Amino acid sequence: MIVLVNVLSLRSANRALEGRISANIQYLRSFGDRMLADVGLTRPAIEGFVRKRMTSSDADVRKMIQPRFDDPKWWYWLATAIMLFEYLVGGSRLAMSAAIGLTAVQLFHFAVREETLTAFPVQVRAAYLGLLVVGLLPWMSFIHWIQLFGTWAMVLFSYCPLARMLSVLPWNRHHPLSFDLLRRTFLSRPVRGSIVSAIRPSGL
Description:
Layout: H1 2-38, H2 43-52, H3 59-65, H4 72-90, H5 93-114, H6 120-134, H7 142-157, H8 161-167, H9 179-187, H10 195-198
Helix pairs in contact: 1-4, 4-5, 4-7, 5-6, 6-8
């Protein structure tokens, strides 16, 4: 009985915390708009960039890679991508601190939402945060450049290289490791939802 009460209390606290986080999503979107303006971009400009590169026969793909302005995840990654750019190109150490802080917030947000630290979205964000920290070492700075291109791939095309790499780890994959699995994992088009769930024995 005590355990049940504790579980219910924890879920109630989680819902309350998620409510507070959701209340700040609008601020995050406004912040993202301001950062876009700082680099001379707007939402219509990004949408136009995507549409021009998609044909009418690629309607399903276009829906998957078109910027998801109503998705908090997209705003998290957009803000992080711009901060990384400011750090690597503009030399702003404050931008890197902000990127690490925002990724930590995102990690906490998804840990609360998923209610487990082993959930795949939590793994992705924990790995990303770890790479941000490791990349601060003088001989590991190339990691940040890889993250920059990977994050922009996620923002513009919904293709997350890190998630795809993590999906082939033993505790995440549902099939034996093989060349075919690697091909389907890394060369497949963007997918809806988790890449772990999208991989099928017959391919994507």
